[in-house]
Specification:
2 domains, globular, alpha/beta, binds 2-acetamido-2-deoxy-beta-D-glucopyranose
Length: about 550
């Protein structure tokens, strides 16, 4: 019976000529790694995400036939991490590795599910811990765990994953890609800076590259608006009111009145239009701001600058207000900020923003740099020299990571590489997305086209989606655009973003519009349906 069982297992494991057994994969991992499971899923399956996988709870559905392998890696005894690979039977010869989200721990199965539907062998790590995105307790005085999240788990799973992919198919991987947004975008830049050989193409959305300052900037904004009984305090109920006024003033300034703020950088927003009249007793009820509240709003819409004109962090854009209630809750700094201070940079659970806040903590944070997470090595010439490509994008309506932090990154890389004779356009291109929030979505009052199959976008709409339905090509799908650039040398100058009515795929496409390579911008040609991409062109500013 036992022998029969082994024979049967062998038969099942080698379905379609593929050996999806833990014992097979075990031959291809080194002594720091252990294959913990391997199983075949037939076409149409759902991968049921375990309840413990707190960071990424969505289960991908309707998967193609594939082999799922899990590996536990112990780079140092105190800090193991895990990774999973989805190996589709119908393989396109490539791999894609996905990135993280805030401080989340868990394998992003829904994201690797997206990759596998294209035919990529798709790799995702749990970043060495299990936690919801804003929870940093796992990192408290745990530098090795922080390193797993900072860079090591992505690097290790991509490199070991490649060996396992090649063993499974008995063929070399043709090209290796990375796709991530937010912390995942940071992982993309970190990888390009630390391990320039890991990927041939990197898609990096809204990168949290300036991680050591980011959550503290959110805290600074909150603290400028507190305490709640101060005359300068604005309640979160005012954020949509401010957002509506931003659209009212900034939308027409970009040349077309369509609800979308296409050029927040160059909008002259007169905040005084929000001021209350003389008889107003309750500004929140009247949807207006007092003079003291307006002063707070001025601070928020300007860069955070400290003593001696020291620039600390760029401000959020006009049009980003719909996401402020999570970033700047009106009663206390966000949980993300508190977890950063207390656990990620080790100040302890007793750290109290009301007693212990001071602006020098931003420099302390940068010295602490948990897990070497900050992706601020602007000399990306080693990555350039490998011939690899990186595509960055960022929504103008992002209310979690200021859009201008992407400009800062781009300009600093430019400033570093230009003197070395390196033209960024040859390997690094950036696209801004008018009206897009953090990584996906659009505020209801802007209703902008934001979908282009960027990292995490497909599973924000559906658990069974990939690419751009009806438009699965390099013009509309940014991952395919990256593939076309890496493999065929066709460098993208624009990507067409799509908007479905109510963001449900059952509805019709209501708008498509080009996103332009920075610093160009999409301009309406002046006639024709503005919801059709052919009536727009990418133009320089001057
Ligand atoms: C195992 O492989 C990983 C990834 O290539 C490497 O970082 C690690 O040092 C290796 N461990 C051993 C014990 O060889
Ligand atoms: C002001 O109006 C808001 C919204 O209607 C209400 O929640 C709040 O309690 C009012 N404040 C005062 C002091 O009446
Ligand atoms: C501002 O800069 C001056 C000159 O470098 C220095 O002496 C002074 O201590 C600085 N002040 C603060 C508050 O950092
Ligand atoms: C789209 O949203 C609008 C407004 O909420 C609603 O009236 C309409 O029924 C929705 N359409 C579909 C197809 O869900």
């Amino acid at each position: 019976m036992k022998l029969l069982g082994i024979l049967m297992a062998g038969l099942i494991a080698s379905v379609n000529g593929f050996d999806c057994s833990a014992s097979f994969f075990a031959k291809y991992v080194n002594s720091s790694a252990k294959v913990t499971s391997a199983e075949t899923l037939p076409a149409g399956s759902t991968y049921h995400v375990p309840a413990s996988d707190l960071g990424f709870p969505d289960s991908p559905t309707n998967l193609p036939a594939l082999c799922v392998v899990h590996v536990e890696v112990t780079p140092v005894p105190s800090a193991p991490y895990n990774f999973a690979i989805f190996l589709p039977h119908d393989w396109n010869g490539r791999t894609v590795t996905v990135g993280g989200w805030e401080f989340a721990g868990g394998i992003p199965y829904a994201d690797i599910g997206v990759g596998v539907r294209y035919g990529f062998a798709s790799i995702g790590t749990d970043f060495g811990h299990l936690s919801i995105p804003s929870d940093g307790r796992w990192a408290y005085h745990q530098p090795e765990k922080a390193s797993n999240w900072g860079w090591r788990a992505v690097h290790g799973s991509a490199t070991m994953g490649k060996d396992l992919v090649e063993a499974f198919y008995g063929k070399k991987v043709s090209y290796r890609y990375f796709s991530g947004c937010s912390t995942g975008g940071r992982h993309g830049f970190k990888s390009a800076q630390m391990f320039p050989d890991d990927f041939d193409g990197i898609l990096a959305g809204a990168p949290a590259w300036w991680e050591d300052r980011l959550a503290i900037q959110h805290g600074w904004m909150s603290i400028e608006n507190l305490p709640i009984d101060a005359p300068h305090h604005m309640s979160a109920a005012m954020y949509p009111v401010i957002g509506a006024e931003a659209v009212r003033q900034c939308d027409p300034q970009d040349g077309l009145k369509d609800g979308i703020i296409s050029d927040p950088f160059r909008c002259d927003f007169r905040l005084e239009a929000l001021l209350c009249g003389p008889d107003v007793k309750n500004s929140t009820a009247s949807k207006c701001l007092t003079s003291a509240q307006l002063t707070t709003l001025y601070k928020w819409y300007n860069n955070w600058v400290e003593k001696n004109q020291t620039f600390i962090f760029p401000h959020f854009e006009f049009g980003s207000e719909a996401q402020w209630s999570g970033t700047i809750p009106d009663t206390a700094p966000s949980s993300l900020m508190l977890n950063w201070m207390q656990y990620m940079i080790g100040l302890g659970p007793d750290w109290d923003w009301q007693k212990d806040w001071n602006t020098d903590l931003v420099f302390y944070s940068e010295r602490y740099n948990p897990g070497q997470c900050q992706a601020d090595d602007f000399d990306m010439s080693p990555f350039y020299k490998t011939g690899a490509k990186i595509l960055q994008y960022h929504g103008y309506a992002d209310g979690l990571i200021p859009t201008r932090s992407s400009v800062y990154l781009y300009e600093h890389i430019y400033r570093t590489l230009y003197p070395k004779g390196i033209d960024l356009d040859n390997f690094y291109r950036m696209f801004f997305v008018p009206g897009m929030q953090h990584c996906f979505g659009t505020p209801p009052n802007q209703n902008a086209p934001w979908y282009f199959a960027g990292a995490r976008q497909a599973n924000s709409l559906s658990d069974s989606l990939h690419s751009v339905p009806g438009y699965s090509d390099p013009k509309h799908d940014v991952l395919l655009a990256l593939v076309d650039w890496v493999e065929n040398g066709k460098a993208p100058t624009e990507i067409i973003a799509t908007k479905w009515h109510n963001d449900t795929l059952q509805d019709s496409v209501t708008r498509q519009r080009p996103l332009c390579m920075y610093p160009k911008q999409a301009k309406y040609k002046g006639s024709g349906d503005p919801d059709k991409p052919e009536n727009w062109e990418c133009k320089g500013l001057y």
